[in-house]
Amino acid sequence: MSDDDVPVLEARGLSKSYGHVRAMVDADFDLRAGEVLAVVGDNGAGKSTLIKVLSGAVVPDAGEIRMNGEPVAFRSPLDARERGIETVYQDLAVAPALDIAANLFLGRELRRPGVVGRLFRVLDGGAMRAEARRQLESLGVRIPDVRQPVETLSGGQRQSVAVARAAAFGTRLVIMDEPTAALGVRESRMVLDLIRRIRDRGLPVVLISHNMPQVFEIADRIHIHRLGRRAAVVTPGASSMREVVEIMTGAAAPAGEST
Ligand SMILES: Nc1ncnc2c1ncn2[C@@H]1O[C@H](COP(=O)(O)OP(=O)(O)OP(=O)(O)O)[C@@H](O)[C@H]1O
């Protein structure tokens, strides 16, 4: 097996119960290098629980996770972040009153060089603005001024800032939970294009989505979750939307994992 065949992120036998509710039951997961992997499933199928486990927000009761073949154990979102996993949550974690540059560096602010930054923790606004501009430009996000407060941006631009932040700090992969759920058609397009550019830059993306046309447009592979576990993995070229929905709802049994 070459290095390229080793999944970037892999999980086996993940389980998680909340009291009597079995949110995840012996679930598997594989994310390959350079792909957009969509995760789809009915309401309550356990997608969020899976993503929370992969991003360190929830500790599973059982199962193992590997990154590039190496076993990892995330006890907190910080553990996952330190490993290069960035997550964009549904409820946008942006600070509306702060400007775009400050939002990009939220929690990871750059300090002024030397004693001023080290001892007095003075922020380096110039460096953050320059880096924010560079990041947004490199991702093709068109925002006139990074000193603009985020609350003055459209929903699509805000989401683009959140996604750009994840892409800037995610060194291994980015997880996005329904990034277009609250957006209109034109704004969704902006974010989908951005996801594609992130993938093309070499950063694999896990995309949780209910939007089947978007999934079929952008995903390289589709992980179908059902009743707390992975029911199948299909490719948009080889399976139809109807087939995916049938597996999702249990109307059809998966024909075995096609990839
Ligand atoms: N913190 C929790 N406490 C109790 N039950 C939970 C908790 N989180 C999830 N569950 C339950 O676990 C099951 C799976 O939920 P999860 O949110 O992972 O599904 P989902 O596929 O993301 O659903 P949706 O698409 O509706 O967001 C559901 O029955 C849910 O009610």
UniProtKB/TrEMBL annotation:
User: Which Pfam families has this protein been placed in?
Assistant: ABC_tran
Tell me the SUPFAM superfamilies matching this sequence: P-loop containing nucleoside triphosphate hydrolases
Residue ranges occupied by any ABC transporter domain in the UniProt entry: 9-252
SMART domains the record matches:
AAA
InterPro entries linked to this entry: AAA+_ATPase (IPR003593), ABC_carbohydrate_import_ATPase (IPR050107), ABC_transporter-like_ATP-bd (IPR003439), P-loop_NTPase (IPR027417)
Keyword ATP-binding set for record = yes
Q: Molecular function (GO) terms listed?
A: ATP binding
Cite the entry's keywords alphabetically.
ATP-binding, Nucleotide-binding
Q: What is the official name of this protein in its record?
A: Sugar ABC transporter ATP-binding protein
